[in-house]
Fold this sequence. Notes:
Elements: E1 4-8, H1 15-24, E2 28-33, H2 36-43, E3 49-53, H3 59-67, E4 71-74, H4 81-91, E5 94-97, H5 103-106, H6 109-114, E6 118-120, H7 129-143, E7 147-159, H8 177-182, E8 187-191, E9 194-198, E10 208-212, E11 215-221, H9 228-231, E12 239-247, H10 250-259, H11 275-283, H12 290-298, H13 305-313, H14 328-339, E13 348-359, E14 364-374, H15 382-399, E15 407-409, H16 414-426, E16 432-437
Parallel strand pairs: 1-2, 1-4, 2-3, 4-5, 5-6, 6-15, 7-12
Antiparallel strand pairs: 7-13, 8-9, 8-12, 10-11, 11-12, 13-14, 14-16
Amino acid sequence: MSKHVLILGAGLVSQPIIDYLFKNTDYYLTVADLIEENAVKAIDNHPRGNSAGLDVNNEETLGQLVAESDLVVSLLPYTLHTIVAKHCLKADKHMVNASYVSEEMKSFDAEAREKNLLFLCEIGLDPGIDHMSAMQIIHSVQNRGGKIDEFVSVCGGLPAPEANTNPFGYKFSWSPKGVLLAGNNPAQYIDGGALKKISAQDLFYSTAPMKIDGKNFEAYPNRDSTAYAAIYGLEGIDLLMRGTLRYAGWHKLVLALKALNLLTETPIPVGANSYAGILAKVSGLDVTKLRSEVALKLDVPEDGEIVKALDWLGLFDANIVEFPATCAIDLLAEIMNDKMAYGEGERDMVALQHRFKATFSDHKEEITSTLFDYGIPNGNSSMARTVSLPLAIAVKLILEGKINLTGVQIPVDPIIYEPVLKELKSLGIEFEEEIIRS
């Protein structure tokens, strides 16, 4: 009898998992979304597909959908995974998602093991493909008798080079607020064998240039890298940093937006009815001399790249506008969503690189492992493919009984990462590896 998979969420990354499971299995899929129309569209009249409208807080409907499935995939916002997990525990169902493991999710580990259930988390892109590709190399080095001395891993979702057509070097395929909020996070990593902490204020002053395959990028530390020393089995490592990758120049523009008070919840002042007026008010500047005062405040040339980028965004526009936003960061997110969206036929790009230094008894190695993946024009984005396909492959492996793990897990075990990476390679998502021996 065919298995039944419940997919919760029919948003921007859902299509590749649906297409993969229809093509490569005989499973029946139920796709449920708050807006049922999204689920209907995603199923596209497939004979093994069903759609449902679902508010996750509706316990009766969610409970019934979970009970009727063999496995549940949650593509919902990470804050809702634990609601789903409780229903999976109650109904004895496996669960898969692509989000970081929260403390509450960790708390389900013992009960999931007791019930012989697998709750596989962090099986998307970052987290996900980054874990799996890193662990494959780490285990290879260790199996050859080596020790990892340094590990730097960076990842970014960006416009493909030919679609990199705005001064920010970035485009959004969904709301930018999450990206903007990430600029307000502190970070910590291991450097020189010691803990290094970076405050939220200093985050973008910690950006380092990186050249990958001839392209100019920059990277900055991503939240807490130190936990991965234990997760990856790298205790005692000299350098361990996971970072976010952007095109060169991004940090200067984010620092400018921060300095102008635009990455805050500062309320939009009553009476401010143009972008220029709002910028002047929240930054404490004179609207009649706004461009020159912005340049002065940022200590940059008035005719330089940063002021030009702010102008391109429309922040000096004195025309009266209507907007629903009530605070500075929400308004900026709205403006960016409008100005920095992908155009028809434009491709996005995922760039991921690991850099290792390892010591063996008779030599040293510098290992780089690089992934560039591109979206399909007018089709699935690279971000959707790289987040969704690892989930899809994991679903198939679990339901075929090929992953004999239980509890709350992430994909750092070869029983998961070897077959997933092999299948991703067959789908064109493949790393190029280079080893320099000395």
